[in-house]
Amino acid sequence: MTEFFTTALLLTIFGSLLITSASLSRTLERVGIPVALLFLFLGMLAGEQGIGGIAFEDYRFSFIVGTIALVLIVFDGGFNTTYASIREGIRPALLLATVGVLLTAALTAVFARAIGLSWAEAVLLGAVVSSTDAATVFAVMRGSKLSLQRRVGTTLELESGLNDAVAVLLTIGATQAVATGEVPGVSALWGVPWQMAVGSLTGLALGRLGRWLLVRVRISTGGLYAVVTMGLALFSFGIATLLGGSGFLSVFATASVLGNGRIPYQSGLRRIHDAMAWLSQVAMFLMLGFLVFPSRILSVALPGVLLALFLAFVARPIAVAACLLPFRFPAKEVGYIGWVGLRGAVPIILATYPVLSGVSGAERVFDIVFVLVVVNSLVPGATIRRVTKWLDLDVPPAAELHATLEITSMGEIDGDLLLFHIDSSVLACDGAIRDLHLPEGASIALIVRGSKLLAARGPTILRADDQVYVFSQHEDRALVTLIFGQPKDV
């Protein structure tokens, strides 16, 4: 009975933390505090030195669970990234994810040594905090519905999905150097292009295989499609890593191929993976909060704060400016990308690696990284909305959907259900349905006007701000978009 009681207590605490975190998310967004920061503090509060009293100091388990959570978060990001966005932002993002990470690591390590840390601690810190965090970037860019100019937003998202390969290599190399006293040679840097090449090729191959599997194999119920896609995400990470490639890049590539292709149950999969990404983020930050002991934080608060401010105001901006120079970004875009160097779960998870390797002083480095992540959540994290508006980098948000309609198909179907927001400039606005001359293979399925659902009849007039669902054959899509404008994502 003791085991049942303990399990029930843990589930009660964890469930209440999930409810509290989700319930307060909207309030925190209004005041500018990232939701991830709340998760970390609730984890601390429930930990051994908090009111929850949960004794937890299992770095290995945290590393495994955190990695799985990041896989699901990166998969959701890739699943919602279009090929057009990737083509537009891949070159600057790739340079930021490689040269930018190396520059950030070097500058941070030098500053850490200058404020009194040993070279071993400084090198470890520089490696661990060198990359931006996909979980935090995706949460801010999409979860808070921040409407950025596409090139800026895409560059930030792609960078966060690509730069883990370099950060992982740096962390492993720094840990081995501190543990053995032998500095890795320059040849170790060749591991970066190898990891990226293997990761991207593995991900693209598994994405195409996954699309074939989802279309060709009969699956008995809709819920199992999400099981297949989550299995593909985990398999993609695992096989790419075993082949010596970047597992996270492989996951991102796999998800992009799936999200940009025609697969059954696609809109349902988007919602499921969005929910899984949020659950993963909540659970991951709560668990990482359990690892933090407030009694140890006070002794590293000053170096942690100084390093966070240096990273935000000096290291990240310098690295970004150097990397974006060849691409002629306007100064305000360079400044913005330099400011939005969000750190979150990735540095904390990477900081567990030296601890697991038994490196002397690794726990102190872990505590400093935690302080750095907390400060980074406030500066620049809490200022992103204001800075976006100040630099005039936001775009008008898409019209809010009042209702959604979809066709759930267990196989490939010949046709699309498209959603259009009727703008005053499109041909269909203020026209009767019977006068639109739709192609023979197309028809309006439903009209949403405010909170009302309207039947699509011949004399019905389409008004500005209406949501219109149109069924169309693939070959008629160009003509339909000419009448209604560009379709919206459901």
Mean pLDDT: 85
CATH topology-level fold name of the largest domain: Na+/H+ antiporter like fold
Distance linking N and C termini: 48 Å
Radius of gyration from CA coordinates: 24 Å
Major sheet summary line: 4 strands, antiparallel
Number of strands: 4
Order of helices and strands: HHHHHHHHHHHHHHHHHHEEEEH
Second rung of CATH, namely the architecture of the largest domain? Up-down Bundle
Protein name: K(+)/H(+) antiporter NhaP
InterPro entries: Cation/H_exchanger_TM, Na+/solute_symporter_sf, RCK_C, RCK_C_sf
Transmembrane segments: 6-24, 31-55, 61-81, 93-116, 122-141, 222-240, 275-293, 305-327, 334-353
Organism: Saltatorellus ferox
Structure description:
The chain is mostly helical and 490 residues long. The protein has helices at 2-31, 35-46, 59-79, 83-114, 119-128, 134-143, 150-162, 164-180, 191-216, 223-242, 247-259, 266-290, 294-297, 301-324, 331-339, 345-356, 362-378, 384-390, 477-484; strands at 416-421, 443-449, 452-454, 467-472. It has a 4-stranded antiparallel β-sheet with strand order 1-4-2-3, covered by helices on one side. Strand 2 (443-449) and strand 3 (452-454) form a beta hairpin. Helix 10 (223-242) runs antiparallel to helix 11 (247-259). The longest helix has 32 residues, at 83-114. The two termini are 48 Å apart.
